[in-house]
Design goal:
Layout: E1 8-11, H1 16-31, E2 36-42, H2 57-81, E3 92-98, H3 101-108, E4 114-119, H4 125-129, H5 133-140, E5 145-149, E6 159-163, H6 170-184, E7 188-194, H7 204-231, E8 237-243, H8 246-252, E9 258-263, H9 269-275, H10 278-285, E10 290-293
Parallel strand pairs: 1-2, 1-4, 2-3, 4-5, 6-7, 6-9, 7-8, 9-10
Antiparallel strand pairs: 5-10
Helix pairs in contact: 3-5, 5-10, 6-7, 8-10
Family: Belongs to the universal stress protein A family.
Protein name: UspA domain-containing protein
Pfam families: Usp
């Protein structure tokens, strides 16, 4: 069983979404025997009319420190009520940096096992088009990122779902998913989406090709999963090939007690919108935490 020696970093901003992310990150740190860093960030506005313009950097830093301090007090209260549910005090750090939240978390993704960020609603134009902090971090991080919806409780995981394709990222996604399933004591479902255009053939030859493709995918992914199963023998796992676009298939497989694990390639949030990135859609719409398994180099 691997130990996360680099630790878990969670971004907080005093919002309900940030607190939900904090609670989930604390539970995740306990599951993986990892240290937890609670990170606050602030920027000094230079544009007249922008929020915080005219406030001195010392005051802005003090506000960020208050947010981190409140998060640490929240963990202490949880520790008192439910011992063992959050890391011990000596395994928790608080830190404040002068940076945008997204940039600070992306930077920390280079040196941590997991970065956790909360997801707010998508009612404003800039969040839909240009991306929220959670979308930016999940798209641009150098390591694994978990995006936690604002209404998800830090409760036991019922199921881990890994979305995999036929590419070189499948092994990395499966490794993280098997480890998450083992640590959570939950079953793992490995899901591959068979795009609709691949199953829309009308001729006998086309249908035969689809069946061969499906058989090849199933065989290849099963062999890869079996290799990881040897490393994590206690994990109960199954493999499913389901028809439909990948994001739709994975969203249908998710509920609030699920953890979704998918692969990702670094890109700008706007590119993810334009190109229809599967991880980008999942982190914006999934009802459960989504771990985007960027591979560190």
């Amino acid at each position: 069983m691997n130990v996360w020696r680099r630790g878990v970093v969670v971004g907080v901003d005093g919002s309900d979404a940030g607190y939900r992310a904090l609670d989930w990150a604390a539970t995740e740190a306990v599951r993986h025997d990892a240290r937890l860093t609670v990170l606050g960030a602030y920027v000094v506005p230079v544009t007249p009319g922008s929020v915080g313009y005219g406030v001195g950097p010392d005051d802005l830093r003090a506000q960020a420190e208050d947010v981190v301090g409140g998060a640490l007090r929240r963990l202490a209260a949880t520790r008192t009520r439910w011992p063992g549910s959050v890391p011990d005090p000596e395994d928790v750090d608080g830190d404040v940096v002068r940076s945008s939240a997204a940039a600070a978390l992306v930077q920390r993704s280079c040196t941590s096992d997991l970065v956790v960020v909360g997801r707010r609603g998508l009612s404003t134009f800039d969040r839909v088009v240009l991306g929220s902090v959670s979308s930016a971090v999940s798209a641009m991080a150098a390591g694994a990122v978990a995006v936690v919806p604002g209404d998800v409780e830090a409760e036991p995981v019922w199921r881990v779902v890994a979305g995999v394709g036929r590419d070189d990222r499948a092994g990395h996604v499966l490794g993280l998913a098997f480890e998450e399933a083992e640590r959570s004591g939950a079953p793992l479902v490995v899901v591959h989406a068979l795009e609709q255009e691949r199953v829309a053939g009308l001729t006998a030859d086309e249908l035969a090709w689809v069946q061969r493709y499906r058989d090849d995918v199933t065989t290849g992914l099963r062999e890869e999963a079996e290799r990881w199963s040897e490393k994590f023998p206690r994990v109960r796992w199954s493999l499913e090939v389901r028809p439909g676009p990948a994001a739709d298939v994975l969203l249908r497989a998710a509920d609030p007690r699920t953890v979704l694990v998918v692969g990702g390639r670094r890109h700008t949030p706007l590119a993810g919108r334009i190109l229809g990135s599967v991880p980008d859609r999942l982190v914006r719409h999934a009802p459960c935490p989504v771990i985007v398994a960027h591979e560190q180099h």
